[in-house]
Amino acid sequence: MTDKHLKDHSVPASRYVAALRQCGVGHVVTVPDWVQLALHARLEAGEDGLALINTCNENQAVTVAAGLTLGGQRPVLVMQNQGFYNCVNTLRAVCLDARIPLVLMVGQFGREFDNLGQPATASRRTMVRLMEPLLDILGIAFHRLDATADLPCIEKAYAQAADTGNAVVVLVSAPLAWS
Fold this sequence. Notes:
By secondary structure, this protein is α/β, with parallel strands linked by helices. The chain has a single domain (3-172), classed as Thiamin diphosphate (ThDP)-binding fold, Pyr/PP domains (Rossmann fold, 3-Layer(aba) Sandwich). It is 44% helix and 17% strand. The chain has helices at 3-8, 13-22, 37-45, 58-70, 81-86, 88-97, 126-129, 131-138, 152-164, and strands at 27-30, 51-54, 75-80, 102-107, 141-145, 167-172. It has a six-stranded parallel β-sheet, with helices on both faces. α3 links the parallel β1 (27-30) and β2 (51-54). α4 runs parallel beside α6 (88-97). The radius of gyration is 15 Å and the shape is globular. The relative contact order is 0.21.
């Protein structure tokens, strides 16, 4: 990755954590994601007020986050795109049918550095290229987190999820920075 890619398409994990805190997130429910590895490292080291809940698979992560939401908490789900594909039916049942609002931070694992700043639908990788069209088909709103300037989209995602009673996805395109 070039210095320009780091500058233009990377978000410091510390800023990411601050944005989650600003949204009132208290639980990070996850199946670890390589793209968001710096976030996982920070959380595993301990971040006051943010409980890390590792799950066995993405379906379990969705149901745990749904339970937290029903219990009055504000969780965030963190997974990678492959895992999102794995839990589509659970998301359909929990978010689309049961109307439980959840926010998912989905790492676009496999996204090429030369595709950053370009439409993800132009990626050479199927799992990256199909994500946005799949979200459109499912009627799940999404935002792109490609740079630090995009961090306010997390707050927008929570507002949308609450307004619609549905899932909202934040697509994380570039690996988080270790700061």
